[in-house]
């Protein structure tokens, strides 16, 4: 058979299969046939963020109100009993979308077939510990869990690292799980993004849902750069730049930035515990937008593997403005960067370079 005819036949068959598939999905929706459950792993599930996030996932906050889920909960042996308690409460809550709960201390069982991995588990900094001690414990955990995920998670599993140092843990996970596409490994800076939206909304006394397109550049640490240069507010007379409405560059270039940078520490000071409900909510926002897409004209901040955009060297997990469509994120391109921003973006990149070398020295 001639090649052109063969190609034509393949195209026709593919078109018919795709059409048939669309019709089946449409019929399933009409007949209210349930979607297949998505398997979501939460590590450190007996901890604070774990306790806040699992009911959100089971209620559809992360993946939508029509998406059944099976929760895979992982923690370590000393937390096994508490983990079982979380499982008992999930059963008692009788969430209609929750189709199963696996609670385990075995990373292989936990990672088996998961489609989404929310990595919260880690070693918190304790009194008398140096930064390097915490880094050493956490990067070792992320190195070990990288291989469990690589071997046992579902193909195309999307990974979100929350545990600190979040960017560097995500980088280590990426480097030790080379078969997971780098686009599938991200870290949480959405909490910082939401904090920036919250500060602008408080300052202007507007609804937070009317503020959009702030950016968190860099590390989830006090060197992050919360940038409002492209942010807008929906007003009764259309969209207006945040800078124009706030009309106080001194506040925006100083206090606003440090408030967002230091918000995690302020929460720890007030609660004697680190943020949990806002972190869990931001993690749901991160995964929901990644899987279901960002609204037209809106971007969000995600820690992703740098491709060199905005002069940030590849080889770092750095927070950028991204839009998401059909389960894929892309970095927003072409934003104008002034000198003030450039210096702040480079300073946080420099910290990530230092963290990376510290992490590798801990692994040697
Ligand atoms: N990126 C962010 O925006 C953000 C925000 C808040 C907190 N955090 C970080 O998230 C992490 C968790 O915070 P938390 O308040 O839930 O802490 P937590 O101490 O309450 O819980 C951590 C849990 O991880 C478990 N754990 C420890 N080692 C583990 C391992 N190897 N495998 C699986 N589980 C393990 C612990 O037993 C514990 O249950 C911390 O590192 C915190 O600094 C990040
Ligand atoms: O746990 C912390 O150190 C703070 C946390 O990352 C936060 O931003 O709230």
Automatic annotation (TrEMBL):
Keywords: Membrane, NAD, Oxidoreductase, Transmembrane, Transmembrane helix, Tricarboxylic acid cycle
Protein residues bound to substrate: 125, 131, 164, 195
Residues the record lists as binding NAD(+): 44-50, 75, 138, 162-164
First-tier enzyme category under EC: oxidoreductase
CDD domains: MDH_cytoplasmic_cytosolic
Protein known as: Malate dehydrogenase
PROSITE patterns: MDH
Record field: transmembrane: 6-28, 40-58
Gene Ontology biological process terms, A to Z: malate metabolic process; tricarboxylic acid cycle
Short name of any one Pfam family annotated for the protein: Ldh_1_N
Enzyme Commission code: 1.1.1.37
Annotated ranges, domain Lactate/malate dehydrogenase N-terminal: 38-185
Entry keyword annotation includes Aminoacyl-tRNA synthetase: no
One of the record's GO molecular function terms: L-malate dehydrogenase (NAD+) activity
Catalytic residues as annotated in Swiss-Prot or TrEMBL: 220 (proton acceptor)
InterPro entries in alphabetical order: L-lactate/malate_DH (IPR001557), Lactate/malate_DH_C (IPR022383), Lactate/malate_DH_N (IPR001236), Lactate_DH/Glyco_Ohase_4_C (IPR015955), Malate_DH_AS (IPR001252), Malate_DH_NAD-dep_euk (IPR011274), Malate_DH_type2 (IPR010945), NAD(P)-bd_dom_sf (IPR036291)
Family, as annotated: Belongs to the LDH/MDH superfamily. MDH type 2 family.
Catalytic activity: (S)-malate + NAD(+) = oxaloacetate + NADH + H(+)
UniProt KW NAD keyword: yes
Ranges of residues in domain Lactate/malate dehydrogenase C-terminal: 189-357
């Amino acid at each position: 058979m001639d090649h052109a005819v063969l190609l034509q036949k393949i195209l026709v068959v593919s078109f018919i299969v795709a059409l048939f598939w669309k019709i089946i999905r449409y019929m399933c929706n009409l007949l209210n046939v349930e979607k297949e459950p998505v398997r979501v792993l939460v590590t450190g599930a007996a901890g604070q963020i774990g306790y806040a996030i699992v009911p959100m996932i089971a209620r559809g906050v992360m993946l939508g109100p029509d998406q059944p889920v099976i929760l895979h909960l992982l923690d370590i042996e000393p937390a096994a009993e508490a983990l079982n308690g979380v499982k008992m409460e999930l059963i008692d809550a009788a969430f209609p979308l929750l189709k199963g709960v696996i609670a385990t201390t075995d990373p292989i069982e936990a990672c088996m077939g998961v489609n989404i991995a929310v990595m919260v588990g880690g070693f918190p900094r304790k009194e008398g510990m140096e930064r390097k001690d915490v880094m050493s414990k956490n990067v070792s955990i992320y190195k070990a869990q990288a291989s469990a995920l690589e071997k046992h998670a579902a193909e195309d599993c999307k990974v979100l690292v929350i545990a600190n140092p979040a960017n560097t843990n995500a980088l280590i996970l990426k480097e030790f799980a080379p078969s997971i596409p780098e686009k599938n490994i991200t870290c949480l800076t959405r909490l910082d993004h939401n904090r920036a939206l919250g500060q602008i909304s408080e300052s202007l006394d507007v609804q937070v849902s009317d503020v959009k397109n702030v950016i968190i550049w860099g590390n989830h640490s006090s060197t992050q750069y919360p940038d409002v240069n492209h942010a807008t507010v929906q007003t009764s007379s259309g969209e207006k730049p945040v800078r124009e409405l706030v009309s106080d560059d001194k506040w925006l270039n100083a206090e606003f930035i440090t408030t967002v940078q230091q918000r995690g520490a302020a929460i720890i000071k007030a609660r004697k515990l680190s943020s949990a409900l806002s972190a869990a909510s931001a993690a749901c926002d991160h995964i929901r937008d990644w899987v279901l897409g960002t609204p037209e004209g809106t971007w969000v901040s995600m820690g992703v593997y740098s491709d060199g955009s905005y002069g940030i060297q590849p080889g770092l997990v750095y927070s950028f403005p991204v839009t998401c469509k059909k389960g894929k994120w892309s970095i927003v391109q072409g934003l104008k960067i002034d000198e003030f921003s450039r210096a702040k973006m480079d300073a946080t990149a420099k910290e990530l370079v230092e963290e990376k070398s510290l992490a590798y020295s801990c692994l040697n």
